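Good morning C.,

I know you're traveling, so I'll keep this short. The sequence:
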Amino acid sequence: MSSAKLKILISNDDGVHAQGIHALADELRDMADVTIVAPDRNRSGASNSLTLEQPLRVSEIADKVYSVQGTPTDCVHFALNELMKDDLPDLVLSGINHGANLGDDVLYSGTVAAAMEGHFLGVQSVAFSLVGKVNFATAARVARKVVEQHIRRPIPTNRLLNINIPDLSNDDVKGTLVTRLGARHHAESMIKQQDPRGHDIYWLGPPGKEQDAGEGTDFYATEHGYISVTPLQVDLTAHESLRAMDNWLKEE
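The tokens, ready to paste straight into the viewer:
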């Protein structure tokens, strides 16, 4: 890679004031030119949603720290197509998320979605999540090592990387495993309550328990003290089903 200082865009879904995003930025500022563009509040679970029916309002709340009234995807879309369009970053990093993004969580995750938008727009992107809410320093050091490795040898794939770090001290992390996504059981039932006016309200139930969490999965790795690195592809086409679908449509 070029000897010029690396340019990194950082976003998240926990909001611009979240501990995780600032732990990540602080860890990298001595080695990179860091710009933060993140939602003005917690937007966890926003997935890949874009704001289409109202304008985005953006405020620079500190030097190269921008707060956006929008989703994580909005943030990265704005950063790459407007704020940094004449000097694109070398990397888009998302996180450090306050909690895991494992298995089918990635379908809902705003953290993964922010990185995915960077990937869509042609910038190598990585999502970082801490499987807990304590050891952000550990996760930040992991992110630094990933960036340092990328400088030495650029990530050898155009895939989006989803990295989950166990909530352990740096010395207690056992190593790194390349993993596949596991899977959960269906989420538990909705929780029905009433508001003070007697109207029914509903809360999403807690996530389902792990269903596919065996060796080789991201669940297994983090449960056993390892950092999980999962390359993700955006193409959702079930390629192995194309011929069968074509034959089915032709049947009379």
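Safe travels,
E.
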